[in-house]
Amino acid sequence: SENSIKSLVSIGNICRSPIAEAVFRKLVTDEKLEHKWRTDSAAVSDWNVGRFPDSRALGCLRHHGIETAHKARQITKEDFQTFDHILCMDESNLRDLNRKSNQVKDCKAKIELLGTYDPQKQLIIEDPYYGNEKDFETVYEQCLRCCKAFLEKYH
Question: According to its UniProt record, which residues of this chain constitute the active site (predicted)?
C-alpha cells in the first residue's frame, strides 16, 4: 500500500555498506522522510559481525559531516521478508543474495545492485578495503549519486 514503510539494506558491512547506509539515512533525514524509511546494512558473510566500520570509512563520512553508530551484522531470513529493497555493491554480493533469497519463503525484497541507479552508469561499487583514502572517497561519491537517484525514484 502507499503507506507502507519502504526500506533499504546494503550489503558488505565494514566499508561500502556502512557508507551507503549513512549516506542514505542522511538524505532521507534532510528530506524529512525518515518516517517512511527503515534503513540498515548487513553482511552476506559473518566475518565482521559486531565490528564497527573501517576507520577509513568513518573518516570519509566524518569528512562529509555524517556520523554513524553502525555495527556489522549478518543478513537474516527476516531481512528478505521485511525489506522492500536490498541493494548490494557487486556481482558476487548479488549472486550470494539471490542464492540466499531462494531459500526464503515469501521473500518480498527486490534485490539489485545499488549501481543500477547511478546516473554516471558505474554499475559496480568496488571494495576499497585494500585501497587508500581516495578509494573510500570514490565509494562515497558513488553511494551519494546512487542513493539520491534511488530516493527520487521511490519517494
Answer: 16, 127 (proton donor)
Measure the N-to-C terminal CA separation of the chain; round to a whole number of Å. Answer: 13
**Quick check: 76 pLDDT over 60?**
yes
Q: Is residue 110 part of a domain?
A: yes
In a domain, 1, yes or no: no
Domain containing residue 56: CATH number: 3.40.50.2300
Total domains in the chain come to 1
**What residues make up the domain containing 46?**
6-154
Q: What is the 3-state secondary structure (H, E, C) of the chain?
A: CCCCCEEEEEECCCCHHHHHHHHHHHHHHHCCCHHHEEEEEEECCCCCCCCCCCHHHHHHHHHCCCCCCCCCCECCHHHHHHCCEEEECCHHHHHHHHHHHHCCCCCCCEEEEHHHHCCCCCCCCCCCCCCCHHHHHHHHHHHHHHHHHHHHHHC
Q: What is the mean pLDDT of the segment spanning 47-60?
A: 94
**Residues labelled catalytic:** 16, 127
Does residue 16 lie within any of the structural domains?
Answer: yes
pTM: 0.93
